[in-house]
Each structure stands twice: as C-alpha cells, then as structure tokens.
Amino acid sequence: MSAENNIQTVKHMYAAFKRGDGEAMVKCCAENLKVVIDIGVDIIPWAGEYEGHEGLREEQRRMADAVNVTHFEQLDFLASETRVAVVNEVELTLKKNGRTVSVPRFVQILTFNSAGQIEHVCQAYDPTDILNVFRS
User: Fold this and answer.
1) Residue 28 belongs to domain with CATH number
2) Cα–Cα distance between 15 and 24 in angstroms, integer?
3) By residue range, what is the domain housing residue 126?
C-alpha cells in the first residue's frame, strides 16, 4: 500500500479510538496484530504485549479501566509503504486518584502488511511523568 493509504488507515483507527469504537479499530488491524507496550510494565496497567484482535480489545479495556484520555492530538505523520510513525500529544486522567499527566511527544510506530492492515504497533516516549502519577 502507499504511504498515504497507510496514513489514512491510521487516521481511521485514531478516529475510532477517539469515539470509543473498538470494533472499528479492530477492522484496521490484521488478525495477527501484535501490540508491544514495553514501557512501564508492572506499573502502567495496560503495558505488556498483546496479540490478535482479542489482544487489542484487552489492551483497550485495561486502558479504559485505568484512565480517561482527555486530549489526543496527532502532530505529525511520517510514512512509508510499510510503516507510519505518528507523533501524538496525549493527556490522561487517572481514575484511581484523579491526577492528570501530559505526554507531549508520544510516538507510535505502526507496521502494515501487504493488504494495508496494521500488523504491529509499538510506542516510544519519555515515561517519567506517567510513571510518577501511577506510583503516587
């Protein structure tokens, strides 16, 4: 698929996330999807590795149980025929204590299969602030 098609798929998935439509998110992803959230394992409730559509649903459920996403804006898309890197700005409010945390440069890297479906997602960001609010 083209870089522009991949960007559009990511935009569709993010729009589904923003409106809470998990099934529309799943439709953007391959059956063999792998989501790797390796920052904050044992501290951030949704950190870990997830596989397949059920894994994505589980990751989203764990996130929804722990936080409200109060701001989620895409600042930039960097794309090729196989990958899209998205620079996001995110603000979360923890349900357990009401504390808010901002992540001004939250990068997701999404890899696509030949059918134009997302098959791998990983993240990169400075975890200092988010880890601090989960520890408090």
Assistant:
1) 3.10.450.50
2) 9
3) 3-135
**CA 77 → CA 22, 62, 70, 83, 84, distances in Å?**
22, 26, 21, 10, 7
- Domains of the chain: total: 1
Tens of pLDDT along the chain (136 residues)? 899 999 999 999 999 999 999 999 999 999 999 999 999 999 999 999 999 999 999 999 999 999 999 999 999 999 999 999 999 999 999 999 999 999 999 999 999 999 999 999 999 999 999 999 999 8
Distance CA 100, CA 75 (A): 20
Question: Residue 103 CB: number of other CB atoms within 10 A?
Answer: 19
pTM for the full model?
Answer: 0.94
